[in-house]
Automatic annotation (TrEMBL):
<protein>
    <submittedName>
        <fullName>Alpha/beta hydrolase family protein</fullName>
    </submittedName>
</protein>
<feature type="transmembrane region" description="Helical">
    <location>
        <begin position="26"/>
        <end position="47"/>
    </location>
</feature>
<keyword id="KW-0378">Hydrolase</keyword>
<dbReference type="InterPro" id="IPR029058">
    <property type="entry name" value="AB_hydrolase_fold"/>
</dbReference>
<keyword id="KW-0812">Transmembrane</keyword>
<keyword id="KW-0472">Membrane</keyword>
<dbReference type="GO" id="GO:0016787">
    <property type="term" value="F:hydrolase activity"/>
</dbReference>
<keyword id="KW-1133">Transmembrane helix</keyword>
């Protein structure tokens, strides 16, 4: 008996189903991976303000020593609010410690994971070590508001703080010491650039655990993404300090993983001023309390540079 297609349970009019070619499967997989990659890039752009300015969005940042700002010994006096107006008319409230018969006036620019009001202990500690009146400035967005901080707004706010501090203390801008930590170092560099353009650059600055640029540091962290293309807030300190010829004391911790020391060193090597000092601390991580010994070293190096320049 002849065997037919019907007896075998197949439809003679139906073609066998072909499997996708290897080329098609490769194309489909590659398209999916490209889609995922573009989604990651879009997420980085969307989340950039929160990554660069977390203190403006979150109440507490982990991995920080809770005692890092405590004064080394009791200090007489209190830290007070210091109100000043920024370029758009907004009121900002920094924190100031006025020291009687102070040798210096200092503008301190804090990093991205904290607010000025949380740094009263540090403001007093810095005042004690440097024998200074100290203003810890604030930035728009780090107070109770819906403002989204940017590189430009932070630098504008630093300029406003500098001018207000100069007026309040009767101290010329050129004689005010600028101290910037972490992202505050990038803001300090932008401030210096603006003051150089005004021909009123401060005589000295201190850079504490800061970077050559946020984009450079971010490129190392997110090596698989085109960070320099995607980021808006570059904080290019190398470019901002290129024309500065004052005194620079820069300090960095060797085990710093958040802002690797190589980024700090790259900034230091780029400085064109002949009066600069690099201080490397073997055991200081990014969010660690800076030791009293290191603070005293900063003071002694400042005094040495200012005496010789």
């Amino acid at each position: 008996m002849a065997t037919t297609a019907t007896t075998l349970g197949t439809d003679p009019g139906r073609q066998p189903k072909s499997r996708p070619s290897i080329q098609w499967r490769i194309f489909r997989t590659a398209s999916f991976l490209v889609f995922v990659y573009l989604c990651v890039c879009a997420a980085l752009v969307y989340w950039e303000p929160r990554l660069v300015f977390p203190g403006a969005y979150f109440d507490a940042i982990p991995l920080m020593d809770p005692n890092r700002f405590t004064p080394d010994e009791p200090i007489v006096g209190t830290v007070s609010p210091f109100e000043y107006t920024t370029t758009d008319g907004s009121a900002l409230f920094g924190r100031i410690y006025v020291r009687d018969d102070a040798e210096r006036v200092v503008l301190f620019l804090h990093g991205n994971g904290i607010r000025a009001i949380e740094m009263d202990g540090w403001t007093r500690r810095l005042s004690d070590v440097l024998d200074a009146t100290v203003l810890t400035a604030e930035y728009r967005g780090f107070q109770a508001s819906a403002f989204t901080p940017t590189q430009e707004s932070c630098i504008e706010d630093a300029v406003s703080a500098m001018d207000a501090l100069s007026e309040a203390t009767g101290t010329p801008v050129e004689k005010i010491l600028v101290y910037g930590r972490s992202l505050g170092g990038g803001i300090a560099a932008g401030l210096i650039d603006e003051l150089v353009k005004r021909k009123t650059p401060p005589k000295s600055i201190v850079l504490d655990r800061t970077f050559d640029s946020v984009a450079e540091a971010g490129s190392d962290m997110f090596w698989f993404l085109p960070v320099k293309v995607l980021m808006h807030n570059h904080f290019d300190s190398v470019a901002h300090l290129n024309q500065y010829q004052g005194n620079v004391v820069q300090i960095h911790g060797a085990p710093d993983r958040i802002v690797p020391m190589k980024n700090g060193r790259a900034l230091y090597e780029s400085l064109t001023t002949p009066t600069k000092v690099w201080i490397e601390v073997p055991d200081m991580r990014h969010n660690d309390r800076i030791s009293l010994e290191s603070l005293r070293r900063i003071r002694s190096e400042l005094e040495r540079l200012e005496t010789s320049s």
